[in-house]
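Reading a protein record of the kind used here takes little practice once its layout is understood. The reader may check this reading against the record printed directly beneath this paragraph.
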Amino acid sequence: MKKRFSTFLLLIISLSCLAFLQNNWLIEQQEGYSIYYGKSEKQNIKEYIQLFTNGKEQVEQFFKTPFSSEFNVYIHPTRTSLDSTWQKDWNIPGLRSQCWMVASGVASRVDIISPKKWDSLACEHSFTNTVKTQRLITHELVHVYHGQRNLSPDFSDVNGIDWFVEGLAVYASGQLDSDRLRRLHDFLSANEPPSQLVDFWKGDNKYGLAGSVVKYIDQKYGREKLIGLLRFNKLDELLKSLGTSENEFVLEWKDTMLGK
């Protein structure tokens, strides 16, 4: 009797979950990914699909190979919806995201606040800035690609390489533009950079710092070597693969940035 009841209960739960998805999400299947969205986003979905398709193509061109598996994209209608997902995925009950946080990407999925609502639901982002909007979406897709090849697909078990995870996404998405590099050069001309790589993804210059380090790896060691680093989840293993020490690596990067 207990077994029957358990089986019946599991069936009810499964049907309830299916009904929830059917009633609350519309689904569009694209080549390599599925996009989930609410009815209120129906008029925007073609634009969103184009943004994600463009981003997917850019990522695959950068890494010269396709994504290793399909993934899902969830368009959240509210910040509460996004926070609820992050609370569960990151096991942080009560999490309230900061206003500039609009998206996340891991091996299996991207979660993002509806881009056309950024002006009202977020700060520092505007959908009408089409270049930055595309780059942000591509940034998250780089995380998906990276996660599909990393020992920690959701980056929950990485040690000392946040700068690499984020810097790779900054660089490959085009966010390391001439303006950001100029501001970084000005900063380095007047200040000492962090001595440890773990501190490169901190502060006002973190996008420039982390992104430029990955660019340095790409230019010095080559794209094939850069791609080979995607599997590592620990700093010591990454540096060993490059055949350098942290101190030597940071000094050479700085000299390169300052044209020495």
User: Anything to note?
Assistant: The radius of gyration is 20 Å. The CA atoms of residues 216 and 252 lie 9 Å apart. DSSP finds eleven helices and five strands in the chain.
